[in-house]
């Protein structure tokens, strides 16, 4: 029993049964002890607690001594019909993606076995034009965690093949655009089911080609599935029939949405399945045909996705797959005047280059849907709960080896609590396990390639000479042949020290005084980026003020700032971080269409 609580009751039990009872007492400082005691008082003071009911004279003895298991078994059902199962949380709209709890043995064991079946598998991939795999220059794929391990080969598309792919897609457009939205969506629904059925292989590919940890691989597939089901449902419900518009003269007109033509989808390596299929599925659901180019580093994953897409019933002419280097394939793709829209996720510099290419074409302007990077910040004031701050900072900065567009780059901590929070961050970083991504114990895997590694190590080396290193994680001994960058934290003077985004596990910490909050917000806004921001404060006025003034696409309050969920947290930035609209949101699909007004 807890010292000072329930003493009379326990003395009575000991007199009758002679059972020894351990007495325990919390030990700690005031700031640790008080919240604990308050929590216990709330628990024991609840109407349903035994202690509360014991002193209530109106509570029958029979009810008080009834065994909890007997109470449970006496109920007509153990399921509360008012609480939907996880797969049903979106109701009739769509089925939720299937999760896997890797901490429960009954789920972990079969999942692990399905992944290990592809532990030594060797994949081959190449361009797919009109449903046929084409040949090309070979790119050898090795594992980011061990460059001695061969994963597969990819044949890259030539410029002539890209032109042929656009030809095929353009010819297929009228038929696909005329296909009812529900039929287009049904193909994407079948693809979602195929992804879940092949989870083991896809997670293994995420490990071996992209260096993703177990949980990151599972989340990758779930997000891809959610995109497919979300966009297919939206298209089927909102594009199936035109919307009636009644004008001043009482006449009804029809506003309908149609595909634009051939869309180019250019996706990144950090979410090789989710963002890749998110772009492609939105374009297809809206009635466009697609020529897609994945990042050269993760073309195997994208190739398997396209194979499954064809298996799911998407016509061969509707989806064309042209892997290759961005400077070669991407430039040919975006400069072709038959391309009627571009969806792109990647660096700000590449987005600006694509924008200039599109503007230089001698044809009508086309939609350019871009989601780029950011100098993402988190602001922590003196009212924040330190333990929660540290948990969210570590996840936001170091999950996926910091290779998320939304990842935390700059942490602003109010001076009053900075020492304590920085001390806790040091301790949390010391516990991080950096190593092979397929291991259950690994928290942080490798970065994508040697180019990224060298760039990040150069930045760390420069900061060692001009900033204060706070902490650096350690590396597992069996990782000497991989592209690993250790999670590292520095204390710097201000955000203006950083000229570019450093896309990896590097956290920059800046102290600020309480009266400098508006200056901090201004400094963040002046970077020109505006993707994500985190705020930790228990003062509603403070976090509301920050949220109003910060020019960012996604603001997360008292939680981490990564892991946006399709249909629940639409994701996208502003300024140098993107053109909008937000992926996984209600307006994204419309950007892939043209509206037709019929009077």
From TrEMBL:
* Alphabetized Gene3D superfamilies for the sequence: 3.20.20.220, Aldehyde Dehydrogenase, Chain A, domain 1, Aldehyde Dehydrogenase, Chain A, domain 2
Q: Which SUPFAM superfamilies match?
A: ALDH-like, FAD-linked oxidoreductase
One GO CC term, this protein: cytoplasmic side of plasma membrane
Q: Which InterPro entries match?
A: Ald_DH/histidinol_DH, Ald_DH_C, Ald_DH_CS_CYS, Ald_DH_N, Aldehyde_DH_dom, FAD-linked_oxidoreductase-like, Proline_DH_dom, Proline_metab_enzyme
Q: One GO molecular-function annotation for this sequence?
A: L-glutamate gamma-semialdehyde dehydrogenase activity
Which pathway does UniProt place it in? Amino-acid degradation; L-proline degradation into L-glutamate; L-glutamate from L-proline: step 2/2
- What processes does the entry annotate via GO biological process terms? L-proline catabolic process to L-glutamate
Task: Give the Proline dehydrogenase domain ranges.
Answer: 1-53
Provide the reaction this enzyme catalyses. L-glutamate 5-semialdehyde + NAD(+) + H2O = L-glutamate + NADH + 2 H(+)
- The protein, known as: L-glutamate gamma-semialdehyde dehydrogenase
Q: What is the lineage of its organism?
A: Bacteria, Pseudomonadati, Pseudomonadota, Gammaproteobacteria, Vibrionales
């Amino acid at each position: 029993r807890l010292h000072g609580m329930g003493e009379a009751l326990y003395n009575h039990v000991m007199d009758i049964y002679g059972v020894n009872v351990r007495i325990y007492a919390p030990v700690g400082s005031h700031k640790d002890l008080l919240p604990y005691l308050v929590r216990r008082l709330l628990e024991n003071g609840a109407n349903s607690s035994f202690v509360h009911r014991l002193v209530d004279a109106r509570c029958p003895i029979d009810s008080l001594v009834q065994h909890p298991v007997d109470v449970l078994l006496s109920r007509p059902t153990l399921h509360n019909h008012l609480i939907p199962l996880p797969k049903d949380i979106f109701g009739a709209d769509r089925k939720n993606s299937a999760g896997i709890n890797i901490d429960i043995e009954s789920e972990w064991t079969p999942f692990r076995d399905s992944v290990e079946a592809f532990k030594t598998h060797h994949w081959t991939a190449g361009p797919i034009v009109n449903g046929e795999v084409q040949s090309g220059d070979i790119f050898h794929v090795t594992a980011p965690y061990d460059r001695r391990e061969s994963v597969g080969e990819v044949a890259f598309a030539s410029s002539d093949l890209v032109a042929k792919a656009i030809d095929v897609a353009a010819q297929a457009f009228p038929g696909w655009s005329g296909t009812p939205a529900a039929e287009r969506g049904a193909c994407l629904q079948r693809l979602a089911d195929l992804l879940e059925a092949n989870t083991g292989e896809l997670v293994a590919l995420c490990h071996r080609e992209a260096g993703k940890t177990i949980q990151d691989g599972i989340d990758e597939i779930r997000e891809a599935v959610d995109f497919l089901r979300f966009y297919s449902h939206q298209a089927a419900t909102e594009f199936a029939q035109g919307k009636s518009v009644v004008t001043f003269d009482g006449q009804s007109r029809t506003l309908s949405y149609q595909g634009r033509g051939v869309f180019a989808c250019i996706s990144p390596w950090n979410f090789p399945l989710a963002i890749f299929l998110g772009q492609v599925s939105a374009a297809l659901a809206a009635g466009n045909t697609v020529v897609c180019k994945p990042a050269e580093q993760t073309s195997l994953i994208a190739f398997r996705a396209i194979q499954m897409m064809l298996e799911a019933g998407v016509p061969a002419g509707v989806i064309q797959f042209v892997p290759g280097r961005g400077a070669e394939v991407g430039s040919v793709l975006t400069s072709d005047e038959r391309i009627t829209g571009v969806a792109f996720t990647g660096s700000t510099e590449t987005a600006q280059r694509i924008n200039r290419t599109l503007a230089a074409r001698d044809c009508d302007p086309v939609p350019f849907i871009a989601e780029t990077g950011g100098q993402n910040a988190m602001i922590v004031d003196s009212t924040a709960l330190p333990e929660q701050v540290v948990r969210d900072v570590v996840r936001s900065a170091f999950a996926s080896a910091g290779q998320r567009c939304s990842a935390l780059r700059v942490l602003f901590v109010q001076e009053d609590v900075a020492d304590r929070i920085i001390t806790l961050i040091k301790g949390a970083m010391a516990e991080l396990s950096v190593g092979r991504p397929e291991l259950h114990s690994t928290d942080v895997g490798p970065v994508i390639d040697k180019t990224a590694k060298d760039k990040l190590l150069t930045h760390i080396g420069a900061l060692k000479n001009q900033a204060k290193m706070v902490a650096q994680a350690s590396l597992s001994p069996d990782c000497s042949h991989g592209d690993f960058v250790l999670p590292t934290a520095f204390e710097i003077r201000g955000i203006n020290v950083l000229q570019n985004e450093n896309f990896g596990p590097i956290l920059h910490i800046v102290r600020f005084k309480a009266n400098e909050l508006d200056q901090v917000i201004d400094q963040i806004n002046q970077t020109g980026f505006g993707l994500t921001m985190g705020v930790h404060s228990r003062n509603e006025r403070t976090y509301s003020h920050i949220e109003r003034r910060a020019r960012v696409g996604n603001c997360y309050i008292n939680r981490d700032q990564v892991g946006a969920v399709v249909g629940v947290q639409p994701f996208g930035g502003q300024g140098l971080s993107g053109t909008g609209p937000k992926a996984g949101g209600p307006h994204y699909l419309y950007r892939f269409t043209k509206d037709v007004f019929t009077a």
